[in-house]
Design brief:
This protein has helices at 24-30, 50-62, and strands at 8-9, 20-22, 33-37, 45-48. It is of the alpha+beta class. The chain has a four-stranded antiparallel beta sheet. A hairpin with a 7-residue loop joins strand 3 and strand 4 (45-48). The chain is globular, with a radius of gyration of 11 Å. 9% of the residues are buried.
Length: 64
């Protein structure tokens, strides 16, 4: 299922490869925010709620 999704890389992807990707269209359609490691696109992903995704973004911003 996740291989047919359009994944978007984090805007911080130029920081040495430590970044994530997410599937915005999937989130808009389902309310489920899928997140994965950009270095391992065939690996596992996280399924977050809107609040969980917002928390992840805030955590990342505060630990740059």
């Amino acid at each position: 299922m996740t291989e047919s999704l359009r994944w978007i890389k984090s805007s911080y992807s130029e920081n040495g490869g430590q970044c994530i990707e997410w599937a915005p269209e999937h989130a808009a359609a389902t309310g489920e925010f899928l997140v994965r490691d950009s270095k391992d696109p065939n690996g596992p992903h996280l399924a977050l709620t809107r609040q969980g995704f917002a928390g992840l973004v805030e955590f990342a911003k505060s630990h740059v």
